[in-house]
Amino acid sequence: MTIAIISLLSLVVAIAIGFWKNVNVGLIALVFSLLVGFYLGGIPIDTIISYWPLKLFFTTFGVTLLFGITKLNGTLGKVSNMMIYQSHGKTILIIVVFYFLALILASIGPGNISTGALLLPIGLALAYQAKIPIALMSIIIINGAIAGGLSPIAPNGIVALQLAAENGVGDLGFRIYLTHVFSMTCLSIFLFFLLGGAKLKGNRIDIEKPEKLNKQQIITLICILLLIVWVMGFGVNVGFASIVFATFLLIIKSADPHQAIHSVAWTAITLICGTAVLISVISELGGVALLTTFLANLMSKGTAIPIMALLSGVMSMFSSAVGVVMPTLIPTAVELADKMNNVVSPAVITIAIAIGSHFVTISPFSTMGALAIASAPEVVDKKKLFNQLFSYAFVSLAFIAIFLWILGLVGILV
């Protein structure tokens, strides 16, 4: 029992140090994996090293390499501008276009952070010009990117599905993604009206016609479409498929090879994989079982979904949804459901964890919220924007807890 508690506390301390000192939590987690796992728990070092999630590392590397190339050669930026042009300058339509543009781009592979980094500077500059509230446009772009971020071929979605498969929950396919998109779209509509979006009806601005795609960009776009068909239609590992297309694009000089390697999300990969090693150590030392027992004592059939959504959301406000929250909580799903006599299925618990942990990423303490503040025009009051994003993160958290609870009551979330 004592070593199990210590192992859980090591994760809390790792998150706290990372947040306090702004050091990658994955690196700190690896340090604690050695100190707690080997020196206190007696786990052989070779065993601890084997906990490194090689498949997850491989997949995330491949996907972020490919979409780093699409960003470097301007394909994503130009496609974005072409879609924004379709709004014809209508202010409300601009907001709608940005939401679905972020959703689609994140869904096809780049994931939420890359999509947010691409669209937030464009969207917030345009919002200021069109007199759209900066907080509203920030939330719309972030929510769209987050909605697409749990796609089965996006990095966060890959992590969620792989954790579910490895921990006995099973193959959830599109269940997390579709539930997430539906929930996030409903929240975005709610916040659109809450933040005064309806008052913008009838407003217009001028938008320049974008340039056409060049030859390299057309080839890149074809590669992305072929990737989707290959992965979805033939079940090829998305990381391997991404590496194939990335290599082809580098051979034909679509981007600089050194810049392409630098564009890989090494920080996110270190966070995800390093934390995964510590979670495996904690599981081996009984920490996950202890956490599961504690959660089971708090929950019933009627409260399991909102409690897991709230817990995931609160944890995610100050740590990483993909690197910390999902790897910590999803491994508890099967045993938690078992302790509750399966009145709530492991799949539903996993969905609540995955979605709840992503619903608060408009928080300025998260990467997406921080990107919004950094991307806002200089004339914007960034302290006010910080407070707005932080406040609406709590609104989003309350919304998803109630929303998923309702979906569970009516039998949609089963």
Structural summary, described in words:
This protein has 414 residues and is mainly α. Helices cover 75% and strands 0% of the residues. It is built from 21 helices and no strands. α1 runs antiparallel to α2 (25-40), α4 (54-72) runs antiparallel to α9 (155-166) and α16 runs parallel beside α19. It is globular, with a radius of gyration of 21 Å. The model has no long low-confidence stretch (mean pLDDT 90).
Fold topology:
Blueprint: H1 2-21, H2 25-40, H3 45-50, H4 54-72, H5 75-85, H6 91-107, H7 111-130, H8 134-149, H9 155-166, H10 175-194, H11 215-234, H12 238-251, H13 257-263, H14 266-284, H15 287-298, H16 304-317, H17 321-329, H18 333-339, H19 346-358, H20 367-375, H21 382-409
